[in-house]
Specification:
Length: 504
């Protein structure tokens, strides 16, 4: 009987369970969206209990659609939204507060306080990250300082922290009944607490943040057996054997295993990851240094990352906040009603700007407006914003690596948009390549789990699974490309310095 691997993809907008066969093909998918909670401007939360309940539901959906049982599943892989922080009670299993999402900017005063001694790059030599609201470390501090009783409970050893991979793992392996409290190196590298060299929590940094080490999960590799699914689950006794943060998982699913290989994921935000091999490369151009993956006892692979906060989320905003479209797919149809952006540029700095600027004081701007501009131009400007932001990150990657990329592998929901993909190729000046299996995030988690249990033998077998689906080549001439980039950069500067003390 054929065997399969199931990946749990706990993302920003939904939780999914996807079953893969040995060829890396999708057999079945279960998916359930969860509520996006916005208590105030700049605050973004999720309900961890809703996420856990949805996780159980989507596992059942996927198994039912494929007519499979736990006996058909060799291993479970987990991938997740990386910087979203959950803090829960060790003895009740109940979160003390909603999960604070990676997009949330409420912790800027904590960032400023920590940066007062040494600047935003105070810990960057150790952790590869600047001080920013993006990462989970300051989110833990906020919970300890603002949830009544949390600080006392944490100091007593009663609280546990995890990114959503740890939350799902702990619950899947039994929760209060012996649940495993662990994370992998890729997720640990997004807290601001892990030393890139030792792959261990750094006590000096924890002391500076005021976070007790007892809250933190054990750091493990990305591919090993962490534990077994609890008896109360449909997957009981199946090993959980792979964990990768979503962007590293997508890179792994794209078979970008070697130094110099890269991918760009188009989701709620965009994330370009460039594999630097076993060498830690510190960016001089606004990129993050992060863990790429670590397989069992093998040496870790590192990466440079360009993180863009808002890409697909801008399309959702046009749909949900302005009602310009009724489904996300309609953005392409609307954009194709015009030939260009009509002079309009849309910089979606809704929660500040991430790479390569790292400007928390920026806010969104739609510039270049005239009476000529219509809905079609705005739709096109929204799509082009994704491509322009990617170009700026790619320029930084090329500068840091010294080896310009010759093509860009892409994945994520937005790559179904052919208009965007063509403009992306035009504005970066190199081909854009889409794989047959676009669900590379879940596939990467499945690969990590399958390798750990021998379902797949080695990386060469995984490379052989990768297949090209579509390729877009640049059609824009250099003069027009430079003109558009010049206007884009001018538009970006209009978003700077918007936030004052009395502006959220």
């Amino acid at each position: 009987m054929a065997k399969y691997v199931i990946a749990i993809d706990q993302g920003t907008t939904s939780s999914r369970a996807i079953i893969f066969d040995k060829a890396g093909s999708i057999i079945a998918v279960g998916q359930h969206e969860h509520e996006q909670i916005f208590p105030r401007a700049g605050w973004v939360e999720h309900d961890p209990m809703e996420i856990w309940n949805n996780t159980r539901e989507v596992i059942g959906q996927a198994l039912s659609k494929a007519n499979l049982t736990r006996h058909d599943i060799e291993a479970v892989g987990i991938t997740n939204q990386r910087e979203t922080a959950v803090v829960w009670d060790r003895y009740t299993g109940i979160p003390v507060y909603n999960a604070i999402v990676w997009q949330d900017t409420r912790t800027q005063p904590i960032v400023d306080r920590l940066a007062a001694d040494g600047g935003v790059e105070r810990f960057k030599a150790k952790v590869g990250l600047p001080l920013a609201t993006y990462f989970s470390g300051t989110k833990i501090v906020w919970i300890l300082e603002n949830v009544p009783g949390a600080r006392a409970k944490a100091n007593a050893g009663d609280l546990m922290f995890g990114t959503t991979d740890s939350w799902v793992l702990w619950n899947l392996t039994g929760g209060l009944e012996g649940g495993v409290h662990a994370t992998d190196v890729t997720n640990a590298s997004r807290t601001m607490f892990m030393d890139l060299g030792t792959l261990q929590w750094d006590d000096e940094i924890l002391a500076a943040f005021g976070v007790p080490r007892s809250m933190l999960p054990e750091i493990r590799s990305s591919s090993e057996v962490y534990g077994f699914v609890n008896e109360h689950s449909l997957l009981r006794e199946v090993p959980i054997a792979g964990i990768l943060g979503d962007q590293q998982a997508a890179t792994f699913g794209q078979a970008a295993f070697d130094q110099g290989e890269a991918k760009n994921t188009y989701g709620t935000g965009n994330f370009l990851i460039f594999n630097t091999g076993t060498e830690i490369v510190h960016s001089k151009n606004g990129l993050l240094t992060t863990l790429g993956y670590k397989l069992g006892d093998n040496a870790p692979h590192y990466a440079l990352e360009g993180s863009i906060a808002v890409t697909g989320a801008l399309v959702q905003w046009l749909r949900d906040n302005l009602g310009m479209i009724t489904t996300s797919e309609e953005i392409e149809t609307l954009a194709k009603t015009v030939d260009d952006n009509g002079g309009a540029y849309f910089v979606p700095a809704f929660s500040g700007l991430f790479a390569p600027y790292w400007r928390s004081d920026a806010r969104g701007a739609l510039v270049g407006l005239t009476r000529y501009v219509n809905k079609g131009h705005i739709a096109r400007a929204a799509l082009e914003a994704t491509a322009f932001q990617t170009r700026e990150v790619l320029d930084a990657v090329n500068a840091d690596s010294g080896v310009p990329l010759t093509e860009l592998k892409v994945d994520g929901g937005m790559i179904a948009n052919n208009t965007l993909m063509q403009f992306q190729a035009d504005i970066i000046g190199v081909p854009v390549v889409r794989p047959v299996v676009a669900e590379t995030t879940a596939l990467g988690a499945a690969y990590a789990a399958g390798l750990a249990v021998g379902f797949w033998s080695d990386l060469d077998e995984l490379r052989a699974n990768w297949q090209e689906d579509s390729r877009w080549t640049p059609q824009m001439d250099e003069e027009e490309r430079n003109r558009q980039l010049r206007n884009w950069k001018k538009a970006v500067t209009k978003t700077f310095g918007w936030v004052d003390e009395d502006v959220v």
